[in-house]
Queue: 4 jobs
Job 1
Amino acid sequence: MLSRFTRSLSISCSCSNLFKVVLGAAFGITALIWTTETILPSLVQVTYAEEVEKAVKKTAKEKISGELNDVTPPPDELVKLYGKLWDKAGLSEVESEFVEVFTTDLLDPVVIGTTHCREGASLGFPRYMMWTTPEEIDLNTLRVKPCWNYFFKGFRIPEDASAEDLEELKKNLLLTNEEREFIVTLALRKANSYQSWFRIPIPGFMILFNYSLGAIINQKLNLFSQPKYMRLGIQALVWYICMVALILLHNHLKFNGERLPLPDVIRTSGEAEAAIEYFNKLINRNMILRKILGPDSHHYFQEDGEIVPSFYELGDLFTNQKMILFIQDIKERLLIIEAKRRELEENAGK
């Protein structure tokens, strides 16, 4: 009897200590994500910013304080578009002051933070997206970096690439005015959402949920009296279920973050056509880059022109082709609305 009581007390004490560790880990991860999303977006921005070649590296303190003269400044075209489009994206004059634009070394735009916090949001755009004329295209300085990786600085366009492939690449890199306005407006709209706030508590909550679910199963099945392999197997299953739930929740939030702003950004059939053409260019760009860069790029670019998703992403949800189909639905609705509007105007004029 005494030994059983002693064993129960020991288990209770160990569970209490484990709960403190789990609680500390949950709050620690939540605090870290909250800090990077709302307090230090400028520091996060530096990890995505395009660096000036042969520039003197800055210390962490200098980066936090905003001394970023070692990174490529935003192009004049980007600054002009930001000043022109913040109102169209639904930002108030006050909210527009909480947005910073910069040049990213990634192949596609990136949105950091939100306008609904003290430090605001940072919007990064690759330099090539702000080229406005064929004369500005400079493939010698172009760095192809499909995703963020601290140890990977990106591909360079090989010197022996065929002239035909290079011309095709240039054609798909150069965006029209309408396409540039679409992507900048879309990024501004994303920055003006609460997606960052929704993402902050999820990992910490799932850690607590995993612990709570495991504790309940331990009590219900009396697992502490069962063989160790049985306890480990059941807890591994609980952990797996929680990880799948976390991944599904992450993808659901990302899916909403990608799709929900589109109807607010695309208001005419012409804007829908520009958006479709933009995503078509991304597909063609990726296909020609895969061809030019060779087998080393196959880890990043798929044959169908999509970028290889991360292991935690449900890639089929976020393909450029799916975005095109979604925008085509928007375009069809807009065409019906525009036709009805013209009909009403014609009837009113009679």
Job 2
Amino acid sequence: MDDEPNQRTDYFQNQLTDYFIYYTFLELNYLSKSVSNCHHYLSIVGLLIVTSYVIRALIFTQFTIKPIIAIYLGDYATILDNIHDTVWFINCLWCLCTIYCWKLIKQSNCSIKKQQWFKLLIMTNLSPIKSVRLAFKLSFTCMKLSTIGGILSALSLHLPQLVNSDPLISLATTINGLIAAFGSFNVVTNCVNFGIIFSFYAFTIGQKFQLISKLFRSYLIDQFNCEKTITIKVNQLIVLLQDVNQTLNFWSQLNSCIFICTFFAQILILYLVFFVSLNLITRTVLIALGLINLICGQSVTFFTGAYARIKFDECRKQLNRIIFIRSNQFTINSKIKLIVISDYLIGRKLFTVFETLEMNNLNYLMVAIETASHLLLVIINSNKSTIKINQSTS
């Protein structure tokens, strides 16, 4: 029985390690298995490709280039005259996010503090709980699907250029499509899938809070003296909060970058999908990318962070009830200790964006309202631009 928690830890560790080794090109030197040197070179190549797309976004949106030259340079949006710059701006946002996340992940190899996210994640020992097992499998399924979806979306954006094009343009478009697919793979593995991994971690933290809360609730019903047991569980709660705090050095920075980039990308994608006339392929690709964007940075991360917050609040409320209802069973020292801990828990934030915006239901509602208001501004600005263009042509 003593080996069971270790077996669960090994299970999570092996699964995560295999994912990073076989499904990404990330170079993490704190995995339980050594990473091939090939990962280092492929990771650098992926970074260069992503960086090249940022440079190309600036060139294609700021300078007038002949369509044939733009196609050879990898401009997949030449046929999308009315949304050309918007699509490239969305692309640029994702690429900038990838560069930052790549740098942060690279820094984790040299910083023990930034490695805590992985070390504490693999210590998750709640695998007997069906909901956690399901969340673990669902997370890995989402990561694989998002990887496939990102690659196919990048390839699909180049498909319209292959229609009725000469062999030379078709060859250039095919090569650029393959390069874009590899770049998209790096975007997903460096940004999107880390958002999903964080969501699983936040969910497991919420499950741990729920277990502690249930134990507190049961102690309120039982009639025996439970001072020692409650003290042990309170200490576990403090240790859990300390573990969460250690991971924030990594998760807070990564989530902040992913959030701000996906926030603006989501606004523009919503505008393009619902308020602009597009061909079927482009609209389908944007819907797929919008779903990936929504999942990794604008919904699931907030939902799981809010879930952890709700369970933490339940823990705190049950502890306060124990202090007031069962206080006659505690010694003075224990009572003072519990009161101090309860006071320490008041107003404490768990998972945050920019270290101030906590992931909870209220803030998610505020983000949704902010998204809607910015979308309206984009629509109004677009209508004004259209009116000016019509007036100038007439």
Job 3
Amino acid sequence: MAPKLIKSMPKAVRRGVIVFISALALLTSGMIGAAAENYMRDANSDNKVAIRGCVVRFDQRDAAGKTVPRIYANNAHYCVGVTSVSVVDGDLQVLSNNDEPVMSLVVSSDETLTRYGISCGASGGLASTVIRCYDRTGAKVNADSPRMYGAGSNLWLTWFSWQDV
């Protein structure tokens, strides 16, 4: 009876039923619960956490007048774990020498970009992080836009990654 009923269902409904039954079977067998627990850690002094951080400055322009973001590192501004920055499809792409799981990722606009009404958020965080910026109206501001340019326009980036080595 059940096989006939399942065969009479539309294909999309059949797939949904199969996925639901499979997930239910995994959950009741403990496989999903066990996998989820592997991503939880207790806070303690033995945790293997790596911190990456860097300042990206927007104080240079190319011949066409586009802003060219760059790593800003000197004796007062260290850059740890970031290998390069570039603009890809208007977004800031930050490459890193670390591809461990991310626990936290923070992008902070400095006072100059904040005054311009620009705030940014990140996606990813392993070896590649994509940062997208917006103005106060919610309109996207490309990382190479003249609106990002300024002698002190900075994004401060910080990652906390789990080192499971």
Job 4
Amino acid sequence: MAIAAMGLFAARVSFVNENALSYPVTRHALGREVDLEGSYAEYKTENTDGLSLTVEGARRMSCNQYLDKYVSDPSSYYPLLGDETDMEELTLLVLDIEIANNKQGDEDKGYLDSIGWSVVPDRARELWLRVDHSLFGASVPQIDGAFQLSVKPGTTFTVHVPFSALLNKRFPAAMGDVNRLPLDAGSYSFTVTNMPVRHVVDIEVK
């Protein structure tokens, strides 16, 4: 009976894997415009037809370097509860992203959902970097803590987006008992959208 059950389980796993949805991946070089053409990170309602972005630069930075360079009012930065990150260590991957809106009018609105963005080091695929919204929100106060990014039709806007890998310092850990991991130089992959086309930008940092 156990053997039969295991056989059924293996057959089920095989069926699911064979029939799982897969999406084409398009890779882009740093500095190349990525036309989103309806692809989205989280929800179809992002309505990205007519939107594009270009990653114009990338670098590793410390939290203090980011605050000094991109945050005009340091008091607008609210650290995570219990965060003991070394503020001088290179724990951020900062991407200079130009967002362009080529839509024709305000009635055709769209946005980019930064909560769906992720970056992975090519040599450490188990490490997952997400937008560090506590720092990012301080650098762009007009977004008022929102994850959705939009610009007016016919305009562009450049943001400096910090990505970090947060890790619980112990397990089980209290909420907020985290620190940012130091990042190495090398190759990274920035996933801009997940479906129906997965747009990925190849990043190289020193």
